[in-house]
Design goal:
The protein is mostly helical and about 150 residues long. It is about 80% helix and about 0% strand.
Length: about 150
């Protein structure tokens, strides 16, 4: 078996830290509950979770061992979470715009098929749809690459 590398130890520590420390169960359950609440009530619980992640990141960047801080100072969590959410939206906006534009071209190709068929025949309709389909898949590919860069 290969010796444990530095990266392996970082990954193991990152996966174990939520389950360590005094009172970790309550903090973990609060985070899970807010995450699930975000599926029912969009955005608001997610902002608090994002603020909590910022708090964990701040503590880790300050040189502290990874740990779950207390769910306190909800105002700060909300402010940090809102800023983090807005930054995330801005970073992912170019990919979203490209993908939505590709979808719009695709829908125009589908809706325009009868028009193309009426003005240029069946061959024009097939060519118009094929072009829209190619643009759609190219937009998906470029959008995903932009998402990857944003992430």
């Amino acid at each position: 078996m290969a010796p444990t590398t530095r990266i392996d130890s970082y990954v193991k520590e990152a996966l174990r830290f939520p389950f360590r420390g005094e009172g970790w169960q309550g903090r973990f359950i609060a985070g899970v509950a807010l995450t699930f609440a975000g599926t029912i009530i969009p955005i608001i619980p997610t902002i608090f979770v994002a603020g909590y992640l910022v708090a964990v990141l701040r503590a880790t960047l300050a040189g502290e061992a990874p740990r779950q801080p207390a769910w306190s100072d909800m105002g700060r969590l909300a402010g940090d979470g809102l800023r983090a959410t807005l930054v995330t939206i801005i970073y992912f906006l170019p990919g979203t715009v490209v993908m939505v534009a590709g979808w719009v071209v695709y829908m125009i190709g589908i809706i325009g098929m009868p028009f193309f068929q009426g003005t240029g025949g069946e061959q024009a309709a097939v060519i118009g749809f094929a072009v829209a389909l190619v643009v759609f898949f190219l937009a998906l590919a470029v959008g995903m690459l932009l998402y990857l860069v944003a992430a």
